[in-house]
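Slide 14.
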Amino acid sequence: MQSPSLRQLDIFAQMVAAGSIARCADMLGVSADDIARDIGSLEMRLGYRLFEDMSGTVRLTPAGRKTAQAMTLLSQDAPEDWDETAAPAQAPLPPPAPPRQTIMLAAPAPIFGHFQDALSAFEAANEDIAITLDLQVQSVTDAAAALREGRADIAYFYALEEPAGFASRYGWSEPLSLYVGAAHPLAQADSVSRDDLAVTPMLALERHNPMRHIVEDALARGRVRLGPPVLESDDMFAVMTALRAGKGVFAAFGALARDLGRMDGIGRLPLDTQLPAIEVRQALGPRAAETPAVEALAEFLFL
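Slide 15: predicted structure.
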């Protein structure tokens, strides 16, 4: 696999297929603790829980079922027929339901975590509509391509400002913050300057991770330059371990930043300048006006 994040997604798929952490560990030839660590790290990166309980027969949360439906790794497993239990069903399949209108929604996974309850409520109130997710979109380029190619009806994406030549509307902003461990020399500072940061080693996501590019663009706009990276990893447990050891500074926003702010031994740096916030924006496909349900869902998600 190309990166720890893809490994975690693969383990999530194996957990769904195995039905229990013990069976999954046996299938993969690793320990149950290793499985729990990877699932926990994936949940932290996504910003929501995937399983109700990791003991015994595992059960997917509503968000976990939606995530599984969106994964290419599991597309051949008829996700619309899954129930809440992750173990493969042994009973015969029920008669096919009447066809439903499908709305394709593209968004970064942490943004899906922001409005998963709204999506569930919309589907419950509109039984003739099914919402399918694409969790790969991150930037305006991703969103524009997904809408243009018909892979999405509604797209959410990260941006630093309203993109030129691409119709979208502002949803909300995610503050960007810098985090260090209690052992770091800057942890006790009353105020941290750009000069302080320029000589401070950086902890970063892997270079191919779109979230890293968004963070780096925001730091560049805020004229903040960090020292060279001492760790580049999508494994959040590795990042947290390095933070607590005082090895560097890590920039984060959204659900990941909120989780880091709650961790023992990790704190947010008091900067003497405000960093640019990351905007979350919504855009609709070119034929959205011809589909009332798409416009209705887009408005509902803003309530």
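Speaker note: The chain has eleven helices and ten strands.
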